[in-house]
Amino acid sequence: xxxxxxxxxxxxxxxxxxxxxxxxxxxxxxxxxxxxxxxxxxxxxxxxxxxxxxxxxxxxxxxxxxxxxxxxxxxxxxxxxxxxxxxxxxxxxxxxxxxxxxxxxxxxxxxxxxxxxxxxxxxxxxxxxxxxxxxxxxxxxxxxxxxxxxxxxxxxxxxxxxxxxxxxxxxxxxxxxxxxxxxxxxxxxxxxxxxxxxxxxxxxxxxxxxxxxxxxxxxxxxxxxxxxxxxxxxxxxxxxxxxxxxxx
Length: 248
Ligand SMILES: Cc1cc2nc3c(=O)[nH]c(=O)nc-3n(C[C@H](O)[C@H](O)[C@H](O)COP(=O)(O)OP(=O)(O)OC[C@H]3O[C@@H](n4cnc5c(N)ncnc54)[C@H](O)[C@@H]3O)c2cc1C
Fold this sequence. Notes:
Blueprint: E1 3-13, E2 18-24, E3 36-43, E4 46-53, E5 62-68, H1 76-79, E6 87-91, E7 106-114, H2 119-125, H3 128-133, E8 134-143, H4 152-158, E9 163-169, H5 180-186, H6 188-193, E10 204-209, H7 211-223, E11 237-241
Parallel strand pairs: 7-8, 7-10, 8-9, 10-11
Antiparallel strand pairs: 1-2, 1-6, 2-5, 3-4, 3-6
The protein binds flavin-adenine dinucleotide.
């Protein structure tokens, strides 16, 4: 059986579109910070399962996730109703392209996330190994509404001099309203933080966002001489889509 039945420990709503929850961790479940795993609910004996990045770090005895709520989504229309004590099924094979082994060490690491694409970076920014590999880590989280800035207080409370957290809100008034990808591309991001302009020789990029943003930014980087991690080797940038757009 690739899936094991786990118990919901807690649920935390952020907005009408996003919520987090914690599950018990399957016995012997090993993963790298930044990876994702398929989780699901059983309805009338049938499993409805989707990929989810793991928010919690590998040293915890629970698994935490950050979820979107798609009102007509096969999984999340149900998942949004889970309560402590309910069952969620967790696959036993986590994987992913956003681990520390997927990008070279370097000077500044830029982590660019939109929406629930923040999830894998929540795991990574709490890993001390990250700060040994990079002088500075810049985490940009772009969302539409302020309420979608999940984990904002926790990130700010990390109070780590190597970590720069840049929340941006595109559809409500907020100190920063530009999209994270635009801030990065224009050079405004590094400039505002007082960091050297991003350079493929010294700096690294991890992207986890909506498919359009992820694709566009990967193209821009490649055109500017950056190399993506692939079967050919570890590059100076790596990407993962935060979700796939399904067409009926
Ligand atoms: C590698 C990978 C990692 C993922 N990690 C997460 C995660 O950590 N948290 C999470 O909530 N989802 C994540 N997803 C998306 C997730 O797998 C499901 O698509 C999501 O839970 C919705 O499931 P659903 O069955 O309700 O709707 P689906 O039928 O899966 O999706 C319906 C539509 O909703 C939109 N959509 C789906 N997911 C999102 C999202 N996260 N943000 C914005 N729009 C979305 C898309 O337009 C999609 O076509 C990930 C997907 C992949 C491929």
